[in-house]
Write a structure and sequence with these properties.
The chain is of the alpha/beta class. It contains nine helices and twelve strands.
């Protein structure tokens, strides 16, 4: 399948998926409830936001389905960036090359459902970073097999891992893997901890702080992708947690900055993010 044909398929899919989801009102009530709680938006403002967010989401979904292999063919050396490929320039943000080289030694990597977050995985793997991304297996099993062994795989090796116990997570760090965790969802487990996010009390995943307490020497990283017309920029930062703060507090402050920059790129709006602490929101 040629790149030109895949690009055409991505465009057609994006248009069709947006029309279908927008007409069906997919997750509309959840998005509007979240926005009303955190931004006190009017109905008109909320509908405009929903439309923009859904356009971004379907564009990134099309990118994953039809153009994902582009990221799996990026250069392996940070010195080769910026790299021109298929009318798109792939670049590293200022200061990110040094951080990415350090990430090859492993650590804890936190990210969010922000922008084209799935594309970060293959990009990191191509740079020789020993990524192990935690995920919940999908159903049915055949779909999970495709995602794990075809989509989330680079150079024939899957970077997905279904670790279930604290011991498994710590083992990955001891093996100098880069353990990745999506950290922006409502945690509904008994050991969930309290935090603040977008001015609201929320439940947060206790795992990042658990790992940091038990492996304090493991560095903490955050990555995200910035997109400009004809240009994709990978940002990588090492984060430092103050002695009186928690890892998730630092992460939430980072995500709030990203949301302030472009709120319609955070797809956590489609989740019932505040359910545990404010169930009546939904």
């Amino acid at each position: 399948m040629s790149r030109t044909f895949r690009t055409a398929c991505a465009f057609a899919f994006r248009k069709a998926a947006f029309a279908l989801l927008y007409t069906a009102g997919w997750k509309r009530k959840v998005v509007q409830a979240n926005r009303a709680l955190t931004h006190l938006e009017s109905g008109i403002e909320s509908r405009r936001f929903y439309r923009q967010m859904l356009q971004n989401l379907t564009r990134h979904a099309a990118d994953i389905i039809f153009l994902f292999r582009d990221y799996k063919k990026l250069p392996q050396d940070t010195a080769e960036f910026p790299f021109q490929g298929h009318a798109t320039t792939y670049a590293l943000a200022e200061g990110s090359a040094t951080v990415l080289q350090k990430m090859r030694q492993g650590g804890i990597f936190l990210t969010a459902h922000y922008g084209n977050y799935e594309a970060i995985g293959p990009w990191l793997c191509r740079l020789g970073i020993p990524l192990k991304a935690s995920y919940i297996p999908l159903k049915p099993a055949w779909l999970n097999h495709i995602v794990e062994n075809r989509m989330r795989a680079v150079d024939g090796k899957s970077y997905a891992v279904n670790a279930k116990t604290p011991r498994e997570f710590l083992r990955l760090l001891d093996e100098h893997k880069l353990f990745c965790l999506l950290s922006d969802q409502d945690s509904r487990i008994p050991s969930a901890e309290k935090g603040t996010f977008l001015g609201q009390i929320v439940n947060v995943n206790p795992l990042p702080d658990f790992l940091h307490r038990h492996r304090p020497d493991a560095p903490l990283y955050i990555c995200w992708m910035e997109e400009q017309p004809g240009r994709k920029i990978l940002h990588a930062e090492e984060i430092l947690v103050a002695p009186d703060e928690k890892v998730m507090d630092t992460f939430n402050r980072w995500l709030e900055k990203r949301i302030e920059e472009n709120s319609a790129l955070w797809y956590g709006w489609t989740h019932r993010r505040f359910y545990s602490c404010k169930p009546t929101t939904y």
